[in-house]
Amino acid sequence: MEFRFKFSEVSVSFLSALLMVGLYLGFADFQILKRLEGAFLDLRFQVRGIVEPSNPIAIVQIDEKSIQELGRWPWSRQIFATIVNHLHNNDAKLIVLDLLFSETQGSLNLSPIEKLRQSFESDNTIAAREGIQKLDEVMRTVKSFDDQLNPDNLLSIAINNAGNVLLPYSFGFLENNNEFNKTDSSSLEKFKESSFKTVRYIDGQKPNFGLIAKDVLPPISVLTNSALTMGHVNVALDADGVNRYSYPVIRYRDEYYPSLSLQVARKFLGYGPEEMRVEFNEGIQLGKIWIPTDDSMRLITNFHGPNKTFPIYSVVDVLAGRIPKSAFAGKIILLGASAVGVVDSFVTPFSAVLTGTERLATVIDNILNQESVLRRNFMWMVEITIALIGSVLLGLASARLSPYYLSLFALSLGLIYAASNALAFSYGNVWLNLMLPLMTWITAYSCIMIFRFFTQERDARKLRDAFGKYLSPELVDLLCENPSLLKLGGEKRKLTVLFMDVRDFSTIAENMPPERLVPLINEFLTVMSNIVVETGGLLDKYAGDSVMAVYGAP
């Protein structure tokens, strides 16, 4: 038995949907598609609106006003020591310095005294020996002052006394970076202590990382030894320059290191390092909190709003005592910069300029509330299923609806999915692909309309050929638009039937030769037929010189 496939609206819709899904998945890594879906994600943030942070997090900011009053940048670390002492005295629960202290600030310059001592050593006189003794006393005195007044030491003492200060470090992702080769061994030892203590592979899967570090730049050793703990602050941008992801885990030399935001959340909740576990390709277990990531171990940042969504205080106002103690007591306080030339800023869905410190505060709040945006690879299957089901529905509707109502149905289907997508994002923090179903349905709808156009034109030609000689043009057009009017089975209706013939046709036919009679009767039938058609009648039949027509049908 020979099988022949017959195209219909449903089959055309389904096949076009399969083709569109295949093309989309095949070109999903193209920058234009990533940019479009990223733009749709940003739009969902804006539709959802601003969400107030719910955790006790505040920011102390190095702004233009502070630099004007406290002096040009960079500041002496003695100022940072004063800030740390002030926040500690105001009962801040955690103090996070969002500044990378990777180089020493410098001690007092003793080289002129050392050169003078060397000149005395070349002279073996009693005066020279006495001069050397006095210079040694001066150098010891100066060094003692240096140890006490050295800005790095002062900051280290403040950090140690506070006992709740976290510091950042930075990873490098290029080989042979000279800036990263300056790191001393003591800093690296302290840095290694911050790595994850427990990691677990899910079903033996090899972990997939978006970022793999080549080198590290920790703070100077005198500060790392005083800090409570450390975490990385590395950020990667999307193709369109927007910051959407944070990286709670980065691999470096077969070890795995947490982000500063994750470390802050851990310390705030009171968990030890052994209570923080990486489960590759799944997420991070932080005590009783489960933090789901995507398959590249990334968190999609759930931005709350534009700049200044979190409470922000100027450094100079803090040091002047203009901010009440309640603004800091029991809270996570982040010290960062917003001044031009000092700030690191990012483009976000809400703002063209969001400070790095406020981005860090956002990620900390996401972790504590377990409200990062969820996006996993298996969601592709959900989105493909939605796209195919919607396409089949379009095909089924096409077989029953006119083009006008089919267009309304397609528009409604797209709007319902867009609204459901926005609700899932706003209330469930779930990121479902918006482009794939919509593009699939647009393609399916277009193919259905093209298919209907060609099939209806073909059927219309057949109807015109069959009925054009017997029906008025209006009735032919009606049948072409609604072929269902030609259904079998009969219908009861009141009609008007017209019978007409030529009076005394038999006598005329007997007395007229055939070569004249035939043209005459043809002319009569043509004129009468045209009149019937023009007046909306249906020519039923000719019988010799008579014509039968019906009005009110079909």
DSSP helical segment count = 18
Estimated helix fraction: 40-55%
* Low-pLDDT residue spans: 1-5
**N→C terminal distance:** 40 Å
Rg computed from alpha carbons, rounded to a whole number of angstroms: 42 Å
**From the helix content, strand content and strand pairing, which structural class follows?**
alpha/beta
β-sheet strand percentage: 5-15%
Name the average pLDDT: 84
- State the total count of DSSP E strands: 20
Shape annotation: rod-shaped
Largest sheet data: 7 strands, mixed
Structure notes:
This protein is of the alpha/beta class. It is 47% helix and 15% strand. It has 18 helices and 20 strands. Helix 1 runs antiparallel to helix 15 and helix 13 (379-398) packs parallel to helix 15 (435-467). The longest helix has 33 residues, at 435-467. It is rod-shaped, with a radius of gyration of 42 Å. The protein starts with 8 loop residues before the first helix and ends with a strand. The model is unreliable at 1-5 (pLDDT under 50).
